[in-house]
Design goal:
12% of the residues lie in helices and 33% in strands. It is mainly beta. The strands form 4 sheets. Strands 1, 2, 3, 4, 6, 11, 12, 13, 14, 17, 18, 20, 21 and 22 form a 14-stranded mixed beta sheet that branches. It is elongated and about 75 Å long.
Length: 374
């Protein structure tokens, strides 16, 4: 093989290798937790009127570890103890009236934390828990181990009254159970309760907060974020879609029964087949109005076969606090039959029941009322 051919072959191999090594693209807003990776941070709960940052330890169960130290506690007082179960740390994280669980989270946030059954914990599970020695040693390299002070692990060091600790440099030590050290809790999120995760880098301006009420659909940046803000499912929030009219790219939605109050909106999002949010905006402010008609202009190239337009009632703070959303209604169900065909003007149908319609062109159409269970 000649020199030029060898150089060309080497260049091709290099380029192919470089492509393979490129990181997978990430989104800055996704349905559920699909965009979140190990080492990322999640804003969840409040402590001393500030957001609590948690670092992602495991993606599959969405295990989070607080980045900061929260409250001091003896591990156990009085009689000797040899296990985390029944300890002061367990109570101060979970069950005491002023426990971290009861003071850091709203009722909806608490409902989004899974009870985790530990070999040395309550049989029914703990919501917040300190790491064991083995769990600490298995932390991914991207998870920060150091902190501002010494904190408890939940594992006994084998000596009566002594439990393992981690100092401010991330080194393993141990302390007597009467020592008053910091707690650094971990938890597992219930993935079914997370509706959206969006860019929480700059509270109030990034992610969902970038879309003001009344704005047209806002394109979501494809650039990755490593700090996330959550929107949780809140089954108490309601919204009924009464009818949908589409004229070319303009969709008019009649809605009613919307939840009202400060921070309440009727919002829409366009998601792709991977569950990544492509567009989002707040259509209507429902501070005191629970019904209305809102219009959405679909973006150029909207693909009704692979993208879906969803509408929902939400409560948003436009800051670092967790947002809440009711059930999402798929508006595509009103105007797409899975093949891209659209009913002609005047045709009416119940979503999913007009698959036999054979239509090749239309200007606009109206669908009949349908209520979705909440």
């Amino acid at each position: 093989m000649g020199l030029k051919k060898r150089i060309l072959a080497a260049a091709v191999i290099f380029l192919m290798t470089a492509v393979l090594l490129l990181p997978a693209s990430r989104t800055s807003m996704a349905a559920g937790t699909g965009g979140i990776e190990v080492g990322d941070s999640v804003r969840f709960g409040t402590y001393s009127n500030h957001t609590v940052l948690w670092q992602v330890v495991d993606e599959s169960e969405m295990t989070l570890l607080s980045t900061g130290l929260l409250d001091q506690s003896q591990f156990g007082g009085g009689s000797d103890i040899s296990s985390y179960n029944g300890s002061y740390v367990q109570s101060n994280m979970n069950t005491a009236g002023s426990s971290l669980l009861n003071t850091m989270f709203t009722s909806t946030e608490k409902a989004a934390i899974s009870a985790t059954v530990l070999s040395d914990g309550k049989p029914t599970g703990d919501y917040l828990f300190p790491l064991s020695l083995d769990e600490f040693n298995a932390l991914p390299a991207s998870v920060v181990k150091i902190a501002t002070n010494t904190w408890w692990l939940r594992t006994s060091n084998g000596t009566p009254r002594y439990f393992y600790t981690v100092d401010s440099f991330g080194n393993i030590g141990s302390a007597e159970q009467d020592s008053n050290l910091y707690m650094r809790p971990a938890m597992n999120l219930d993935l079914s309760k997370v509706y959206f995760a969006d860019d929480g880098t700059t509270p109030g301006t990034s992610g969902k907060a970038a879309a003001d009420y009344g704005d047209p659909l806002t394109a979501i940046s494809s650039g990755a974020t490593s700090v996330w803000h959550l929107t949780l499912l809140d089954s108490s929030r309601t919204l009924t879609v009464d009818s949908v009219t589409r004229t070319e790219s303009v969709v008019a939605i009649d809605w009613s029964n919307a939840s009202t109050g400060t921070g309440s909106y009727v919002s829409v999002a366009i998601l792709n087949s991977a569950g990544e949010v492509q567009y989002y905006t707040k259509l209507a402010n429902t501070l005191s109005t629970n019904s209305g008609t809102s219009t959405v202009t679909l973006p150029t190239g909207f693909d009704a076969n692979n993208w879906r337009l969803e509408i929902f009632s939400e409560h948003t703070y436009n800051d670092w606090r967790t947002d809440y959303a009711g059930a999402r209604t798929n508006i595509n169900a009103y105007f797409d039959n899975g093949t891209g065909d659209i009913p002609q003007t005047g045709d009416t149908a119940t979503p999913f029941l007009w698959l036999g319609l054979a239509v090749t062109a239309c200007v606009g159409f109206v669908f009949t009322r349908r209520r979705y269970a909440k």
